[in-house]
Amino acid sequence: MMKQQTTHDFGATLQFGIVAAVDEAGHNLRVRLPALEDMETDWLPMITFAAGGNQFYSLPDEGEQVVCLLDAQGESGAVLGATYNAADKPPAASKDMWVRRFKNGTVIEHDRKTGDVRVKTSGVVTIDADAVVEKTLTVNGLLTYTAGMSGSGGGGASAMIDGAVHATGDITSGGISLPNHTHPGDSGGTTGKPQ
């Protein structure tokens, strides 16, 4: 037997609530409203930055605090967004920072003052682009290059690098180590490693 909802008589209001359920495919939420005797809303659309030609998809977790704009009966409206609170504090303290922090520890951030973009993750970062990286690309970790892209001055399935390549570890090509390879000697034996 379903518990009958309490009827409230209020005008269109701004209400703070807790996410009770998430409709991932529809980008909708059900919200529990503590100020209204824990009344649970019907499915409400979660407002997003864009939903047409440009699209943005992001949903809060169950238990997260959100703010809603509801009609006079509290049955229809929209979730305007999540709010920081004592339990969930902001991930930055600068108006120059754009930060996207995920529950699994992944962080994507941009500092508009310096222009720096940082991606920190324990997963794989894939850049699938038709254009070439023309400036500096810094990778802390393993960088895998898949043939099929071309660098400046190159084409086809190769990469061209204009400038110096500095490595503190080994560089291997065709199974041959650059700093550790040897050659057959002129009078037998093998040469030493490159100096």
From TrEMBL:
Location of region: Disordered: 172-195
Domain Gp5/Type VI secretion system Vgr protein OB-fold residues, every copy: 17-84
Protein name according to UniProt: Phage baseplate assembly protein V
Superkingdom per UniProt: Bacteria
Pfam families the record matches: Apex (PF18946), Phage_base_V (PF04717)
Gly residues bias locations: 186-195
